[in-house]
Hints:
The structure holds three protein chains of three kinds. The longest helix of chain A has 26 residues, at 341-366. By secondary structure, chain A is an alpha+beta fold. Chain A contains 13 helices and 20 strands. Chain B has one domain (2-217): HUPs (Rossmann fold), CATH 3.40.50. Chain B starts with a strand and ends with a helix. In chain B, helix 3 (96-109) packs across helix 4. The model of chain B is unreliable at 262-266 (pLDDT under 50). Chain B has helices at residues 36-51, 69-77, 96-109, 130-137, 192-200, 208-211, 247-265; strands spanning 2-6, 9-11, 32-34, 57-63, 82-86, 115-119, 142-152, 156-163, 166-173, 176-180, 204-206, 226-232, 240-243. By secondary structure, chain C is of the alpha/beta class. Chain C folds into two domains: 2-191, Rossmann fold (3-Layer(aba) Sandwich), CATH 3.40.50; 206-333, 3-Layer(aba) Sandwich (Rossmann fold), CATH 3.40.50. Chain C is built from eight helices and 16 strands. A seven-stranded parallel β-sheet of chain C has the order 5-9-4-1-2-3-10, sandwiched between helices. A five-stranded parallel β-sheet of chain C has the order 13-12-14-15-16. Chain C has a three-stranded antiparallel β-sheet with strand order 6-7-8. Chain C is elongated and about 65 Å long. Chains in contact: A-B, A-C, B-C. Strand 12 of chain B pairs antiparallel with strand 8 (146-151) of chain C.
Amino acid sequence: MVEIKTIQKRTVKADDVYLCDESKMPGGKAEEVFFPKNIEELSSLAAHFYSLKKPYTVFGRGTGITGASVPLEGAVISLEKMNKINDLAHCKQTGKPFLKAESGVTLTEIKTSLERFFYPVDPTEMSASIGGTVVTNASGACSFKYGATRKWIKSLKIVLPDGSVERIERGKYFADNEGIIHFSGKKIKVPQYKMPECKNAAGLYSCPGMDLIDLFIGSEGILGIVGEVEIWLEKKFPAVSFIAFFEDEQKAVDFVGILRNSDPKPEFIEYVDRLGLKMLKEKSAQDPASLNIPPLPENSEGGIFFDTAYNEGNIIEVLEKTNEIMSQATGFTGSFCAWENIEKERIKFFRHALPETVNSFISEIKREYPDIHKLGTDIAVPHENFNEMNLFSKNTIGRSGLKFVSFGHIGDSHIHFNIIPQNYDELEEGKKIYGILAAKAVELGGTVSAEHGIGKLKRKYLEIMYGSKGIEEMRKVKKCLDPEFLLNRGNMFEPGERS
Amino acid sequence: MKVAVLVKQVPRTDKIKIDKESGTLIRKGVESILNPYCEYGLDLAVSLKKKYGIIEEITAFTMGPPGAELVLRRSIALGADKGVLLSDKAFSGADCWATAYTLSCGLKTMGNPKLIICGKQAIDGDTAQVPGEISEISGMPVLPYVLDILELTEEKIVVVSEFENGTVTLETSLPAVVTVGSGSNIRRIPSVNDVLKAYESEIVVLDKTKAGCNDTDIGLKGSPTRVVKIEPAFSKGDCEMFDDGNFNEGFEKIKVFLMENNDEEN
Amino acid sequence: MSEMNRGIVAVCETDGNEKLKNVSFEIISEGKRLADITGEKVTAVVMAEKKPELSDIYACGADEIVFVRKVSSLLYDIESESWLASKVIEKIKPSVVLFGATDYGRILAPKVAAICRCGITADCTSFEINENKKLVQIRPALGGNILAHIISPHTMPQMASVRPSVLKKMKTEKEVTGHFVEVSFDIPENRKKVKELKRESFEANDDDKIENGRIIVAAGSGVTSRETLQLMNNFAKLIGGVSGCSRKLVESGWMPHSKQVGQSGKTVSPDIYIAIGISGASQHLAGMKTSGKIIAVNNDADADIFSVADIGFVMDGNLWLKEMMKFLENRQNNG
């Protein structure tokens, strides 16, 4: 144990960076922020707070958008000083490469530390901490091919709320027939609800005979603090970037059905709708250099972005196959294709320009209505229900007359509808619609949050998904490991609910 | 008529890192691209082909190591009909003159193109000497810094050229060399079909024999100039730094000589 | 032939009004500096319709002026002047030939070099004479990141073009004079293939040209609003300077190309250069690093611009400008 007074700390100021995340959620409050340098200091802090019954919130890099790292009371533990990366290693049994890193290391730091390999989880926000991505089971575009974070975690070193430290390697602790996991002298009863059959970041993970490590991944930090992570890596390879344009949105969506099953499987498949393309075209017309993209093929009202990997020697094959499925697709209007990095960067920049543009619209509206924010859905549904969900969302928002665009990870049947309210009445209207869409997603076997998580901002949608029984089961797990609900209070459950 | 576009493979200068001690380029991880000025030249050739029916074929030429075929593929993706790579170990170490000579030999093999379009300079060496030398070696006039081509027939060409002080409209008989100094900031992006075509095209490779070069005029041997030393261009100066905290101090410093300068004038 | 070559030739360039451009005086001055080391003489070659003002040329250090009288309607008479220059060089057999690296000089020089079958180094920023009495031609390359030292070991003359505004123009105060020769040549038909149909000059107001500014205030990509840009223009005016910019602002259409400083724009060397929100890409630094005093304002303490600056402010450009304006306006109000 380390003496608490030797651990770096400071008083939290008004407007402190540790009181807010990228959601810009208001109401953050805390007394002090601690900066542990290693797991030992981290576990000492946890034990200290446990003995004092003092609530605290863990802060990675503040890139979340659900308020999960926004403290409501007590202390903050920032992981930014836990930033050591070990050298690349290889698994003794399989020879697979992996990397060990402390949880405060950012994805950019991981990326730049690697030469021949890469970590396939790319949630776009590369300044996120690796610990943060583990507890939200982060995904992004490439989960289409590689799956979300869960699949890439070899082991976790966890500081439990009582301060004890446990290393959990995948394949060590499983739930028995009663759904009980024996771990660290405790019996954890895993929830019995069924998870949606699509990408998901809402609620504690559960399945029959589940691995304990999966309970911690995507737990939004309520069960323990991730101190150290071992992640699997993949070998780097070149890829070609494509954009296929279509005369209407539905034809673009239909093309995804073909593309999803094509061989080789694309790295990701992303979508931009008619209104999104319109917004980008307008921006480009106003200031061509801002997007650095030539005029799109004529009559294009929907676009599909995808990257396909190739080996030395088979680039022609990849191009031929892609050319074939594109030219056979109905309503195809034209394509962009890039194979050099400098050109691929342009396409990537264009793809990321839409969310940025939406944000700049919101900032503009904020000048008149300071409390306006965008309403971005994070809904995913099983593939067979995507069409229904997409049409329902478009029609529901469309009928209301609210301004919106939709774009995102269509490969995972996961697109973000971004509603841009122009005033407070529209904001209220948008919130209502948000609830209607969430309910529809659950009805279609999907999730209210596929990648952002629940945090403090989306708690009410968790109950729509799992019902009060499901919430109760989750709360029991929490109580088993953190009886006083000290750790990350307010995430998933209302701060007052303890029993 | 046949049109030749000369292209060059260059390192991405926006990503260049220089070893501050030795002044040499850190090549690791530096990507090669088509020189932007050459791309403007290619854009011009492609738009001419669209506008005037008399252009049968656009051939992209480059001199470089085997890997330089990638810029030819990019050129084809952007509208060239074929690519010719002048590649031979004996070409290495060429300065502007030997490069211009070698390219001129290559151009001869395609049966005298009527129009040779070049970028005004390459962003790595920034020498801008090759087009002028080619025009002399090939015995053609040169029209530099072309913004636009107003007229093109089998016999003559009329262009608008931009110099630092203004534009001039120039006319000359063909064959001629044209250099291009500007173009659209927003570069084109080829379609899948274009890229596929680029990868399926066969690149013609010419060594010194096939290009018909004199041994004494190529590579280092044929080059009148030698680089004898490379040094980093900038060394960390002694910059006095100020920020929000001690702004006033810094302000006092610059106030003095801003005022001095101002007062001298009045 | 190399042992026979003696003398330094500066090939001058006139503007549309038969006046020598500044860069011509700069290369004559540099020629003089080199000639003083090697003990050679300096010849200024002027190809024009009218005889230029001779005293200015002698005052920069020319020992001799060769005036090639020509008849031509072309402002940029590349084909015939490259041939004429080669004829003069053939006669004089100099060891060194310098050109100004203007747009015109950068196309003229390689043609002359190709006719003379000698080496040419473009865009030099300085010269040295080495132990073998060879001219070491120093020029930036790789986007201005490095300086390459280049020689022509076996061929004569040694040719180079020189970046305008980098080398200083010298001027002797006392009345000097020198040798004057007028020559003319019959230009062959194959050198008369280019015709000029039209000429449009876009001479900016001289006071507003960045190459003439003694104080330049330049904006870079850190200037993200038009309001800040306007503020900067006002500031520049108030301190008697002119405004310039980096490539980014030209690309975004906020500033004209004529205001761009850097490798693909103008090289400037004012007494004071104030860089607002300029990160300092090597291409930009190459165009301004010889300025007298460099003041840099940038949010990012690691920005490369600080590596050439004398005084740096790590702060927002807009804020800095507001502070400066406050002071300047107060000063004006107080007298």
